């Protein structure tokens, strides 16, 4: 096993920061698309536009997570196995990219399966928007 990965490779520490930074950039691009390209003119368009934005951000972030992992992480590294105390297994950067991407895709599955919650939330947001514009 190599020396401690945290003391020999500062890029390893930067992966969470870089992944967060590119996530913010993807959100900015996605918001731009949501505001200027897919205009919302009716209440029934709000939910579909939000879902489009979620899909667009996931599509943007999927390759970026893999690129960030390849750039920041060493070719092979060891991670502690959480199921067996004291054991560690060898991993490669694509493993971290897969974990990050699965998180995005799980959010999409959760969002699309929560139709009733979206319906309830949509009306709350609409009520607040009406309240703010009426004053």
Q: Mind summarizing the main beta sheet?
A: 2 strands, antiparallel
Question: How much strand?
Answer: 5-15%
Principal-axis shape: elongated
Q: Supply the helix-strand structural class.
A: mainly alpha
Q: Could you tell me how far the N terminus lies from the C terminus, measured between alpha carbons in angstroms?
A: 65 Å
Give the tags.
single chain, 135 residues, mainly alpha, two-stranded antiparallel sheet, 74% helix, 6% strand
What does this structure look like?
It is a single chain. The chain is mainly alpha-helical and 135 residues long. It has one domain (5-134). It has five helices and two strands, in the order H-H-H-E-E-H-H. It has helices at 5-8, 10-37, 46-72, 93-113, 115-134, and strands at residues 77-80, 88-91. A hairpin with a 7-residue loop joins strand 1 and strand 2. Helix 3 runs antiparallel to helix 4. It starts with a helix and ends with a helix.
Fold blueprint:
Blueprint: H1 5-8, H2 10-37, H3 46-72, E1 77-80, E2 88-91, H4 93-113, H5 115-134
Antiparallel strand pairs: 1-2
Short description:
The chain is mainly alpha-helical.
């Amino acid at each position: 096993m190599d020396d401690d990965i945290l003391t020999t490779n500062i890029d390893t520490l930067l992966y969470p920061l870089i992944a967060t930074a590119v996530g913010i950039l993807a959100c900015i691009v996605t918001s731009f698309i949501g505001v200027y390209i897919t205009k919302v003119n009716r209440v029934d368009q709000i939910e579909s536009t939000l879902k489009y934005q979620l899909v667009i951000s996931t599509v943007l972030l999927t390759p970026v997570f893999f690129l960030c992992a390849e750039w920041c992480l060493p070719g092979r590294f060891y991670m502690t196995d959480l199921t067996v105390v004291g054991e560690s297994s060898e991993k490669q950067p694509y493993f971290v990219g897969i974990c990050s991407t699965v998180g995005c895709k799980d959010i999409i599955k959760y969002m699309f399966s929560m139709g009733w919650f979206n319906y309830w939330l949509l009306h709350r947001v609409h009520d607040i928007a009406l309240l703010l514009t009426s004053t």
